[in-house]
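User: Hi! I have a protein structure encoded as tokens and I'd like to know what sequence might fold into it. I'm fairly new to this, so please keep things simple.
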């Protein structure tokens, strides 16, 4: 019988301050394949929808973009069916019962539909209302949310389903697409503070998994600075105080009951960079359109909007050590609350030799939290991890593997498992996929504890510590 140690007290922990609105310790899951669909996670449903399966995702209907191009007349209806069923109130109930206090919500830039250039870009429409509904459920359940810009305009990483467009033509790192991402940020910041459904959102993540070689991400550091300024600009207009900042803007009394008018007028404030000014101005008509579509027009255009009692959002970045080759450090551009994200998957190779002992030795001597803290990237949470391995893992090993990873990641700000669920079907060999990629299935099988703060074996790392570091 395995012993469960609840409320484990961790020694040598590097838990930095939890910003206001952020759970003191994050125990979370990703809502992957909901609003950015990745067919490998639900292969039978994808085929049922009309998608295809291929070894190279750029050669068939294997992403949202290719699906929208193949089925322009029915894509919106088809995806509405998926959005309606992949993440439901029942899932929220299950996550709450499992003690989950945070979700990371992967989003594509196309959820702000006006940002899509329909002359050459195709994506399903209608996702925003499903996001609003889902966030409302999460708020009611007391589960905090991170809005993760998972799929960027122009594509931020080559050859990946998670970008929404599997291609080798990476164009995110350009002025045009940086601008679109900043407009997206202004819109999401506004919705977070003014749409009641967004009430549990405490952070917005700038870019999911940029290219690791910083030499291939020109001006990414400038984008990071503008991302932070965009969030803070919206908040200053809303009268929300930004901790550790002396920035301020003056909002004319003539527009004090019309946020979009105030945003338009104040967008030219010279305390912001030209790129931020442009993004704020371009967000105005988009917000007015969203206001009409989502029944938020009176909130955006005919209500007092200053909210000095609200908490400023946490700006979230992949940590500086995600990249190599002289990357920019996001800590250098912080204004107010900021946190950092690292992703760690052993199953893709390059971390440890493909055997249980090497895996355990690596994870039990993990130094990423310390390395990040040394360059100001704290608090750090692990925004993606799971139980997959490069070898056939036994049940006994998966109990240890889950414990060891939770133990390692909990020395920082916490962890967010990928994913909350995956499909169980003939194409996934029953629960073979879900066994290592689904939090709810891992909980059912017992690898993951009912109390997410608990471990089966608090001494799981004792035989492996100080052997190596990773």
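Assistant: Happy to help. Inverse folding works backwards from shape to sequence: for each of the 470 positions I chose a residue that suits the local structure. Here it is:
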């Amino acid at each position: 019988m395995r012993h469960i140690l609840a409320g484990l007290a961790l020694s040598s922990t590097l838990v930095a301050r939890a910003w206001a609105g952020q759970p003191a310790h994050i125990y979370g899951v990703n809502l992957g394949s909901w609003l950015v669909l990745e067919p490998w996670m639900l292969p039978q449903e994808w085929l049922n929808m009309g998608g295809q399966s291929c070894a190279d995702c750029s050669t068939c209907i294997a992403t949202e973009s290719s699906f929208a191009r193949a089925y322009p007349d029915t894509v919106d209806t088809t995806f509405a069916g998926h959005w309606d069923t992949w993440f439901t109130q029942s899932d929220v109930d299950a996550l709450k019962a499992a003690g989950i206090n945070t979700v990371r919500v992967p989003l594509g830039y196309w959820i702000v539909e006006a940002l899509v250039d329909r002359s050459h870009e195709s994506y399903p429409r209608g996702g925003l209302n499903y996001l609003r509904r889902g966030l409302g459920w999460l708020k009611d359940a007391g589960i905090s949310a991170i809005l993760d810009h998972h799929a960027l305009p122009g594509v931020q990483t080559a050859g990946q389903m998670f970008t929404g467009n599997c291609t080798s033509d990476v164009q995110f790192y350009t002025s045009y697409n940086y601008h679109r991402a900043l407009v997206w940020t202004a819109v999401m910041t506004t919705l977070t503070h003014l749409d009641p459904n967004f009430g549990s959102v405490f952070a917005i993540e700038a870019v999911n998994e940029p290219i690791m070689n910083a030499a291939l991400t020109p001006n990414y550091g400038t984008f990071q600075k503008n991302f932070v300024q965009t969030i803070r600009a919206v908040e200053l207009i809303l009268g929300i105080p930004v901790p550790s900042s002396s920035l301020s803007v003056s909002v004319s009394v003539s527009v004090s009951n019309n946020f979009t008018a105030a945003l338009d007028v104040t967008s030219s404030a010279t305390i912001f960079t030209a790129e931020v000014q442009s993004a704020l101005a371009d967000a105005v008509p988009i917000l007015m359109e969203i206001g009409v579509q989502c029944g938020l027009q009176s909130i955006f255009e005919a209500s007092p909007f200053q909210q000095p009692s609200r908490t400023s959002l946490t700006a979230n970045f992949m940590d500086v050590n995600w990249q190599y080759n002289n990357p920019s450090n996001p800590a250098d551009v912080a204004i107010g609350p900021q946190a950092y994200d690292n992703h760690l998957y052993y199953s893709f190779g390059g971390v440890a030799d493909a055997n249980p002992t090497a895996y355990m030795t690596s994870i039990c001597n993990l130094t990423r939290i310390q390395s990040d803290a040394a360059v100001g990237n704290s608090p750090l949470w692990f925004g993606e991890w799971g139980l997959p391995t490069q070898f056939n893992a036994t049940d006994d090993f998966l109990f240890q593997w889950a414990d060891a990873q939770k133990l390692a990641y909990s020395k920082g700000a916490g962890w967010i498992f990928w994913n909350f669920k995956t499909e169980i079907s003939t194409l996934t060999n029953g629960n073979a996929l879900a066994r290592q990629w689904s939090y709810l299935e891992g909980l059912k099988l017992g690898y993951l504890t009912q109390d997410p703060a608990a471990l089966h074996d608090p001494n799981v790392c004792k035989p492996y510590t100080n052997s190596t570091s990773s």
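A useful reference point when you look it over: The first helix runs from residue 43 to 49. Feel free to ask if any position seems puzzling.
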